[in-house]
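Problem: given the chain below (801 residues), write out its structure.
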Amino acid sequence: MVCVLFRIAELFHSHDVSRVFCHLCITLLSVIYITPPRSQPVQVVLHLKEGRKTSDAFCAKMAESESLEITAEHERILREIESTDTACIGPTLRSVYDGSEHEHFLDKLETRIKGHDREIEKMCNFHYQGFVDSITELLKVQVVSTNQQLQDSGKEMVSRMEELNRCLVQQRNIATTIDKLTLCLPVLKMYSRLNDQMKAKRYYPALKTLDILEHEFLPKVIQYRFSRIMMDALPKLRQQIRDVSMSDLKDFLESIRKHSEHIGQTAMRQAEQQRGLDSSAPRKGCGPETHLGRKDAGSSSDAEVDTNSPASEQDSGILEEDDDVEEEGARDKFENYYQQQRRQQARLVLSAQSNMTAKSFPLEHETLEGYKKYFNQIVGFFVVEDHILHTTQGLVNNAYMEELWAMALSKIIAVLRTHSSYSTDPNLVLDLKNLIVIFADTLQGYGYLVNQLFDLLLEIRDQYCEVLLKKWAAVFRQLFDDDNYTPILVNSQEEFQNVTNQFPLVDVALEEESFPKKIPFSQFVPSIFAQVKAFTQACLKFSEDLHLSSTEIDDMIRKSANLLLTRVLSSALQSLIRKTHIGLTELVQIIINTTYLEQSCKHLEEFVTDITNVSPETVHTTKLYGTSTFKDARHTAEEEIYTKLNQKIDEFLQLADYDWMLVEPLGHASDYLVDLINFLRSTFAVFTHLPGKVAQTACMSACKHLASTLLQLLLNPEVKQLTMGAIQQFNLDLLQCESFASSEPVSGLQGETLQLAFIDLRQLLDLFMVWDWSTYLADYGQASSKYLRVNPSTALVLLEK
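Solution.
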């Protein structure tokens, strides 16, 4: 019935109609299902009566307000609803919606509902007690049966529920246990791992495990007793690790001290190999490579140092272990101890080796080995420090490294400056320079500032130049001693080619001559030229890898070459010229040689330009001073020729043995004078290869000196008296000299010019031989005087004799 009523309600689309049917359903349900207690029938009746009164009043009002037609229509619709099947009630309700008296129909429907309610109430009041009894019996039967069935079914469910409850409790306990074990097992595993690492002496991972255990795991299980036991044991383990770490640190310091040389040797060898690879690649110029300070990156060098050394095997664990120990409060202790020990080791390493001084170890290889060992130890020391800086935290820092390197750099420079000054072998200095370059490049690759080392190399370069100058001074002296001071005689084209390969000789006439040929200069000319080139190349070798520009290298080579020419070679030539055993022939050859060397200076300029690639026209380019050097040497040789020629004349005149009391002359010139004239003729014949002015000046100087010396013989105070026969004999000697002067002994010098050298002596002898004193006295002081060159005091002294 309830389903039917709700079905009818669904068919009514109007809210009010639905409300009416719902009210009807509720009323029916109240009557059917709600069974009041027997003790309250009167209240139910009253309730129904009260509802009926209300319905009657409402119906009366509706009857008064409705018209008869509308009432009849609504009655018909209500009858159809009451009598029609619920499935066909739709058209009936549709007619209600088609009309306009919806509210009136609802009131009518409400009245009808109330009427039915009253009927239901009457029926219920009439049959109430029997209905209640029936319902009660029915319920008892159903309830007892249902209760028995429920009890039978519930026993198994209760047992299952009890079992389920026990399982839930067990599951909860298991989950709790699992949670606790999940929390505790990592702690126990970490502690077990810590013990295993301690037994295996793997202290660095043990320290990491201890730190994780203390700060991450144990705080989570602090409520358990075993965690407190562990907490009490951790400080002891940490102290044990600290003690072992300090011991290992001491062992590590000792190990790296022993193996620093090997590490440095490996690093320098790799740097040298890398430099060789770089130098094999084409480069543009040789400009300096800018390098500022230390690198901030962890990769300190492209070259990997040998990691198989004992020190490298230890540092991977020891250094990291020290790093973590520092974090636990011992930072200052470890830092101070490590840095103090390393500073002491640095002072030992920076001390000069005993075999670094060439003065104590004259053998070059021994001295060089001393420098190698010194550099290897320093490089090894700072490579280790750089490795520690980039693989640890806090043990060393940039400030410590900069301070240590600054101290080391000052000591290194002082040691090198002192000990390199003892080196007298240029090869040793050059090898030392190469070592310093490799040393600087190696440390520069690890981020150390090495500009001062390259500045030191510039100082050593000056020292190297001085050593080279001393060596080449000895070479020049040896060349001068070995030379024969005669023109080079070549008998074949091959010999001639050998000479021209050493020296740039350009002489077309000489090339056209047939063999054998005489090259005007002696052997020391090509030898000197070759040695100057060799000196220049030796200077260039030192300038390599110094990060200098081509202009700087060219300037350095030119300055060094000028020192060689103006100081060493010039001094050697001056000493050679002034040697007592060097005769006129040698001096003449020296003049010829210096002339050719002077002409070759332009070729030296070209040679320097070729090896430096710097044009001599470049601004501020230093010029070679070879021309002035050879000119000065030639002038000195010329002066020496004049001096030696006069000395030779004096030697001949010392043989003069005049008989001043001679009555009659001998009729011929004195023997010593004849020998002297022959000597002069042969000597001036050698002067044919000299420049014309040199030979002419030498000849004029010799004649003047001869005339002056002969006059001194006449005026010698020891000669107290002489005869006219002696004067006549002296005149014969003078005639021999005048004859020599008039024979033009030197090309380009006329005889009258040479005879002027003897004019003073000639007028004096003519005055005495003619005894023309009246004319001398009459014309004295006049420009046209026949005896103008006769000095009155000289004439008076001779007259007295």
